[in-house]
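Usage example:
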Amino acid sequence: MDSTVTAALDPRCVPIKLTHTLPVGDDCPYPAYTDDEQAVWRTLYRRMEEILPGRAADEYLAGLRVLGLDHEKIPALADVSRALQRLTGWRIARTPGLLDAADFFGYLARRIFPCTDYIRTRAELDYTPAPDCFHDIFGHTPMIVHPRFADFYQQIGRAALACSDPARMEQLTRIYWFTVEFGLVKNPGGLRIYGNGIISSHAETLHSLSDQVVKKPFLPVESVAAQPYDIWHFQETLFVIDSFDQLEAEFAAWAGRHGLL
Ligand SMILES: [Fe+2]
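Running the assembly step on the lines above writes:
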């Protein structure tokens, strides 16, 4: 089925245009999760913990350790926000779902990560078409602990806000996709995953480092910006950064060349 048709059928895939500001940090209430929702978190966490060593980036695993995300129950956004603020000056806002791009990037530009607080159903352990709190908290927040990634993530937001050309915006979206969501990095121990879209998916974590995926260098950034992607299937092409210093510097250079930073 055409992906736009599929997306239109699932209300979680329809971006929300905000009419009010989101609660941030201590203003994010803790939802009344059911026992089954807490059990889904435990199951997802346990399944990923088994396969992330040797696959996830050292930087991601360090962030996960520092944040100390609870294995047993869904973390409170207010607690994660407090920890991030102490570490890199980022905070968490509670979003009711997938945000309109301009709203989302506007928050990133202010070092605020819009985060969902609902969790997928047990029938969706392997795949969910829109972000949930396992993707957002377990997948995203450990990388925001890394100072260079944290700065790069803010720069993406600032560049997007400065972008008025739809074609350029599409390029920026592709860079976001192949870094924040699906990036690979060279670690001393070998090729590792830092992309949150991979790290929150058991099946894609196993697939992404396999020989079925073409791995290309992150430079030139123009080649990343020109690479189409498919949100409905495993990625066939991924891009590899040498380091997070490289990611931050080369993205800033690309955005500077196009008048976005
Ligand atoms: Fe994401």
